[in-house]
C-alpha cells in the first residue's frame, strides 16, 4: 500500500479530512493523493503557493516572517499547513516548502526542505497551532528532492495519525478498565 493510500485510509477511519499547501512540490502531493481511488472521502483540496507573496495572500503566512526569514523556514511550513487547514475547512493540513534547485533560495542550499502537519489534536489543549515540522536535508536532482518531499510529508502525517490512534486506543482501554 502506498503512503498516500495509507494516509487516506487512516483519515477515512476517523472521518477526518485533509488539505494540502504546496510550494516546491508544485502539486505533486495532491496528485499522489488523488491517484488513490476513493480519495474524495477525505481529501478536500490543495493550494499551490509557489510564489512567496501567495503564501501570505492565500494561506495567511505572516508577512513579517516571510520578509525576515524567507519562504524556506520551519515556521513558514507550519503556518502554511495551518492556513490551508483553516481556509479549506479540513481537520488536517500538510505543507511543503524548500529548495529543489538548481539554485539556492533565501540563503538556503539546494535540498533544504521543511514539511509540516497541522491537525486538530492541540485545539483541545488550547494550542494556537497544533502541529509538527520536519527539517530535511535532501540530496539528488530536482526531481528526486521533490519526490522525497512528497514521501516525507505523507509519512509525517501517517506517523501522527497512527500515534493519535494509539493514544485514543490507550485512553479507551483505561476508561473501560476504570483506571489510569
What distinguishing features does this structure have?
single chain; 180 residues; alpha/beta; Maf protein; five-stranded mixed β-sheet; 6 helices; 5 strands
Structure description:
The protein has one domain: CinA-like (Maf protein), CATH 3.90.950. With 180 residues, the chain is an alpha/beta fold. The protein is globular. A five-stranded mixed β-sheet has the order 2-1-3-4-5, sandwiched between helices. The protein is built from six helices and five strands.
User: What is the CATH level 1 assignment?
Assistant: Alpha Beta
- Number of DSSP strand runs: 5
What is the tally of helical segments? 6
Total number of distinct structural domains? 1
Shape: globular
User: What is the CATH-assigned architecture?
Assistant: Alpha-Beta Complex
CATH overall fold name: Maf protein
Strand order of the largest sheet: 2-1-3-4-5
**Would you tell me the overall average pLDDT?**
90
Gap between N and C termini = 36 Å
Q: List the uncertain runs.
A: 123-129
**Rg from C-alpha positions?**
17 Å
Task: Name the CATH superfamily classification.
Answer: CinA-like
Strand content: 15-25%
Characterize the main sheet: 5 strands, mixed
Along the chain, the helix and strand elements come as: HEHEHHHEEEH
Helix content: 40-55%
Multimeric organization: single chain
Classify the secondary structure makeup into a structural class.
alpha/beta
Amino acid at each position: 500500500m502506498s503512503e498516500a493510500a495509507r494516509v487516506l485510509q487512516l483519515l477515512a477511519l476517523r472521518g477526518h479530512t485533509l488539505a494540502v499547501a504546496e510550494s516546491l512540490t508544485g502539486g505533486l502531493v495532491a496528485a499522489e493523493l488523488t491517484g488513490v481511488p476513493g480519495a474524495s472521502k477525505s481529501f478536500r483540496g490543495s493550494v499551490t503557493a509557489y510564489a512567496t507573496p501567495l503564501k501570505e495572500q492565500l494561506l495567511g503566512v505572516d508577512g513579517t516572517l516571510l520578509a525576515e526569514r524567507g519562504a524556506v523556514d520551519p515556521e513558514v511550513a507550519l503556518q502554511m499547513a495551518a492556513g490551508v487547514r483553516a481556509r479549506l475547512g479540513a481537520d488536517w493540513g500538510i505543507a511543503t516548502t524548500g529548495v529543489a534547485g538548481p539554485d539556492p533560495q533565501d540563503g538556503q542550499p539546494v535540498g533544504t526542505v521543511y514539511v509540516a502537519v497541522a491537525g486538530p489534536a492541540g485545539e483541545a489543549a488550547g494550542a494556537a497551532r497544533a502541529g509538527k515540522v520536519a527539517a530535511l536535508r535532501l540530496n539528488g536532482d530536482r526531481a528526486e528532492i521533490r519526490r522525497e518531499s512528497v514521501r516525507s510529508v505523507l509519512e509525517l502525517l501517517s506517523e501522527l495519525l497512527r500515534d493519535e490512534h494509539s493514544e485514543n486506543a490507550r485512553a479507551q482501554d483505561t476508561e473501560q478498565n476504570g483506571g489510569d
